[in-house]
Amino acid sequence: MADALLSRRDFVKMAGLGTASLALPGCMTLSKPLAGKRPPNILLIVSDDQGYNDLGCYGSGEVKTPNLDRLADAGVRLTSFYVTWPACTPSRGGLLTGRYPQRNGTYDMYRNYLVNYDHRYTQDEYAVSPEMILGMDTREVLIPRALKQAGYASGIFGKWDLGQLHRFLPLQRGFDEFYGFTNTGVDYWTHERYGIHSMRRGDKLTTEDKGTYTTDLFRRETLRFITRHKDRPFFCYVPFNAPHGGSNLKRPGPQAPVEYIRKHYGEYDPKDADTKRAKRMRYMAAITYMDEAIGRMLELLDELGVAENTIVIFFSDNGGGSAADNGPLRANKGDLFEGGVRVPAIVRWPGVIPARTVCSEFLTSMDIFPMLCSAAGIRPPKDVVLDGFDMTSVLAGRQKSPRKEMFWQRRSDKAARVGNFKWVESSGGSGLFDLSNDIGEQNDLSKQKPDVLRRVKGRFAAWKRLMAEAEPRRPFRDF
Ligand SMILES: [Ca+2]
């Protein structure tokens, strides 16, 4: 216990930021709207592999996102918001636990790396494959479980991605309702992965909607959930699979209805589906289709009269892949350069966050858990070290971000941001960059600033030591 406290104190000192259980000035005060009101509803929407520049409000002249643009107009748009990993699974784990993947044990994808696409699995083969038997440590406390103490109803409609065995499924992790798939990707229409059907309602597989485009299903279920729970606080988590490429036997790339592509993006011939342009068009159409579904959700909040007391958060789980536009950031999904981990993010909270604002403060997906606890009027779970803080005051423009550092590791690829310096050492390239004038990470300063490089590497090493000691994790495979 003494060691744990020491580690935590060390960490706070090292990281130069407060964990949620430490009272940072202005951070842990409960949000004002709570006085005399019920806690706000929460609609948390996560897109999958959307590029930093793949929204109108982030500067895209190509991708149509009128509803997300409207959402940004009514709240704050974040330009320096990071996720904990450059691909799906650990990024979502970091969000839902408020902890680094290296602390919560979900530090890589739950996927079949040895036998992957192009292999049709048998049911028996798939049942014991790594992506079927691995999952997020059941000792982890997820956002919906924390919100239970404030009486929230919680639902998830979309991509779960944190384990498929019964004990790992959403209903065992604090959610009351679930409709979606549990592996890391499916075909948008057949809902299959490697030829295995993968859509579930609650704990059970269901084929009731086979043939329907996934975005329509997640929209439908979300609208039903919000309508059912409009009279109590709800936490509605909507992790779309759009615009991620379809993940069936073959890899079809992004998927969208042909008529929809033509309606919004012009000439499209399915015979040329493999061209770069065709993939880009499907990708953009998948985003616009999702944007329309989000628009319908926002309309419903208005119709039910609950929009004023609902926090809406949107961000992409990681940077975009080959069909995306991550400009002006370097590299893509999978990389630890900014293009892999800095993502578009929007928060709307009427009466708390001013409309039409842009926040360039250093924030992360790990700062959502403490923020939501504070909004709900509860303390974060005791004895759980969180890696973020309540970012409400920062989003409201009342305070600078206390965050000075963030660290990433994906297998042997490593990166750290300390202040405005970003260090990357990876198979895709290495260097030290000053993000204050080089957001595209083009100008390697490691030779000019050896002292800075040494300091940043030292911070990374200290973080690694802390993560290695973090209890009760240790390597997940020991579980
Ligand atoms: Ca993703």
Please give the count of helices.
14
Query: Which ligands accompany this protein?
Result: calcium ion
So, the CATH homologous superfamily of the largest domain?
Alkaline Phosphatase, subunit A
What's the architecture of the largest domain, going by CATH?
3-Layer(aba) Sandwich
Shape: globular
Quantity of strands, as a count: 18
Radius of gyration based on Cα positions: 21 Å
CATH topology of the largest domain: Alkaline Phosphatase, subunit A
* Approximate strand percentage: 15-25%
What's the CATH class label of the largest domain?
Alpha Beta
Biggest sheet, open or closed, and with what strands and sense? 10 strands, mixed
Strand order of the biggest β-sheet = 9-8-5-4-10-1-11-12-2-13
Total domain count: 2
Mean pLDDT: 91
- Low-confidence runs (pLDDT<50, min 5 residues)? 1-33, 475-479
Distance between the termini: 21 Å
Structural class: alpha/beta
Helix content: 25-40%
